[in-house]
Amino acid sequence: MKRDELARDSTPESLAEHVDRNAPAVRQEQHEHGVMESVREATYRGHHIVIRTSYRIEVDGVPVEGHLGVTNDGKVHYHAVPNLSFASAVDLVKQLIDTFPEDFETQHGGHGEEH
Amino acid sequence: MAAVRRNILNNATARQQYIQGVKLLKQEFPGPTTSDFGIAGPARQVSTYDLFVVWHHVAMFTFTPPSQGDRNAAHRGPVFLPWHRFMLILLELNLQRVLNDEDFGLPYWDWAADGERSPDQQVASPVWGNQCMGGQGNPVVTGPFAFNAADANSWRVRVDADVNGQLRATNRGLRRAFAQSISTLPRKPQVERALNRSTYDLPPWSTDSLGLRNRLEGWRPFNTAPGLHNRVHVWVGGDMLPSSSPNDPVFYLNHCNVDRIWAAWSPRSGGSVYAPDQTEPNTLRGHRIDDEMNALLSDPVTPRQMLDVDDFYTYDTLVVS
Lengths: 115, 321
Hints:
- The complex is a heterodimer.
- Chain A has helices spanning about 5, 10-30, 90-100, 100-105; strands spanning about 35-45, 45-55, 55-60, 60-65, 70, 75-80.
- Chain A is an alpha+beta fold.
- Chain A is extended and about 50 Å long.
- In chain A, strand 1 (about 35-45) and strand 2 form a beta hairpin.
- By secondary structure, chain B is mainly α.
- In chain B, the strands form two sheets. A two-stranded parallel sheet of chain B has the order 1-4. A two-stranded antiparallel ribbon of chain B has the order 2-3.
- In chain B, helix 3 (about 80-100) packs across helix 9 (about 250-265) and helix 8 (about 230-235) packs antiparallel against helix 9 (about 250-265).
- At the A-B interface, helix 1, helix 2, strand 1 and helix 3 of A face helix 2, helix 3 and helix 8 of B.
């Protein structure tokens, strides 16, 4: 690819134009809430395996509603902390509390040290 | 002449230009507002720098295909490397524009070199010095991205994502927490083992895959994950952890080094620089070599278009391990 092909897209005017064109899809995504169902599929000796896993997570009684998935090795991951996977969903939620402190102070009303 | 990307610790000009450039992009407002992205609250102008934050988040939350929740339009699948190359090139072109220097190349952080040092020395690396990226904290209070409540032009995080993955407007300082979730950076032998992969990617084209991409992204090997790219995000911590991780300018130093490792591997690939091709089913749309990749700030490009980028940039060295 040649530099000029992308350089023309790198002006404030072009950025605004492309955002205007693409933003409706982003707005739609913002209003969709994730379904906490993870679907694992595998084939073994000619048999097709489908495993659907659903999670309902609450912290201080308030639901956590982002996208949570399970990979075929059984680890759980959560798209709001995209570089990590966890052996347990409990460990994952502890990481969420550390990574998003304001969400758990304002929305969830909780805080404080472990007892 | 193509830009040359250099080691941020070895080149003061690249370091100073990068810091100056991202600050200029942070102060440039091309027109879009938070309302354009469905962000709750009063409409606020979104800077050019923050448009890249939004784009990264959007790509991460675009599942490919939508029926599953693992592989997305920029991660956990084959497109990870070409999509981020696309993102870095667009940022680099915007930096060249505001710096009025078409020869400017993004600097990289050779984190595996720091990974060879002791844990204490990793935290004290020159990359975290006042003349480079600054240190850690909540908020960061040293270096060029230090928070100053009395200075509206000090580095502010203006857009991030909440725990449920929804974009939101904010106004706070940058956060870093070194070595909190993982104690050490990646090491050179781990980079070498990634370079020894003979294939780019393999079925099931996910975090379970063998191949260079999954090693470099950091999902394999399982017993030492997070590895390489993922490990750097986790080690830096703070704003490097969520989907809005481009809020920290260190994001681009990490990904520039990831891209450099891909560039170093490519001549070893025996001509099979990328997979999958178009013979794979539509469930891999967005990851096949001639599929359009997720775009927000420009027209889309394909992974194939990102395989020959000599017209954009080269690296000062491809010695990576």
